[in-house]
Amino acid sequence: MGIFSGKTGLVLGVANDRSIAWAMSEALVAEGAELGFSHLPGERSERRVRQLAEPHNAKLIMPLDVQKDEEIDAFFDKAKEIYGKIDFVIHSIAYAPTKELQNPYYMISREGWHMAMDISAYSLLATTRAALPLMPDGGSIVTLTYFGGEKVMPGYNVMGVCKAALEHTVRYLAWDLGEKNVRVNALSAGPMRTLSSAGISDFDEMREHQAQKSCLKRNVDPKELGSTGIYLLSDMSNGVTGETIHVDCGYNIVGL
């Protein structure tokens, strides 16, 4: 019996086996959680997620375009039909057009800025609102962020601005939902090789720099992210909300 036995959660945004959300999912399943998954529209994305989720007997594997309110409603309606209620949500959704990441920040187009902010920040608000009716007894919501939302990380550009908005959205949601016993937190991971990071210029240099400058002189391991996810999503963190928890081997505290 794991600490999540009898608990159900939804994981939004797994892309492949390198996704931070997948590292968290594996840890949760090992502790007895039942999980439902969303994936990007398209056969390729569905195939990747099904290969990961079906061995764990996931009852919900469904496409979700968070720019479409009707798809958000459909996903959570299906979750209610299958599970009745849920205990937690993992939000692992972010996107900016590659060309917008490659150009200096001041060159971003209005269209690109709105798309990045809609998908990467507003989606937390929209999916939280849809999840609330499924959490009558309270619950926990965790989103994923990065230190580029706090300090300038060259090459991260508009995603840093999106993460700043995401992190402050966490704080306002935590305030609004506290009386409903719903906690909202962010996990700020060190730079991980994921599908999303492939679009960031100089990403390998970012990882090398962090390994050299962090307190632990290394980069974070995916299993460490899974362990922190268990903490934030379980009763162990019942008094924690509105926080951004750094799992980056101490890099964020270093000033040189």
From TrEMBL:
MF (Gene Ontology): enoyl-[acyl-carrier-protein] reductase (NADH) activity
A GO biological-process term: fatty acid biosynthetic process
EC number: 1.3.1.9
Keywords: Fatty acid biosynthesis, Fatty acid metabolism, Lipid biosynthesis, Lipid metabolism, NAD, Oxidoreductase
Catalytic EC class: oxidoreductase
UniProt pathway annotation: Lipid metabolism; fatty acid biosynthesis
Record: active site: Y146 (proton acceptor), Y156 (proton acceptor)
Gene3D superfamilies (UniProt xref): Enoyl acyl carrier protein reductase (1.10.8.400), NAD(P)-binding Rossmann-like Domain (3.40.50.720)
Record-listed NAD(+) binding positions: G13, S19, I20, D65, V66, I93, K163
CDD domains: ENR_SDR (cd05372)
Residues annotated for substrate binding in this entry: A96
Reaction catalyzed: a 2,3-saturated acyl-[ACP] + NAD(+) = a (2E)-enoyl-[ACP] + NADH + H(+)
Pfam families, per the entry: adh_short_C2
Entry keyword Lipid biosynthesis: yes
Record flagged with keyword NAD: yes
Family the entry assigns: Belongs to the short-chain dehydrogenases/reductases (SDR) family. FabI subfamily.
Full protein name: Enoyl-[acyl-carrier-protein] reductase [NADH]
Organism: Kolteria novifilia
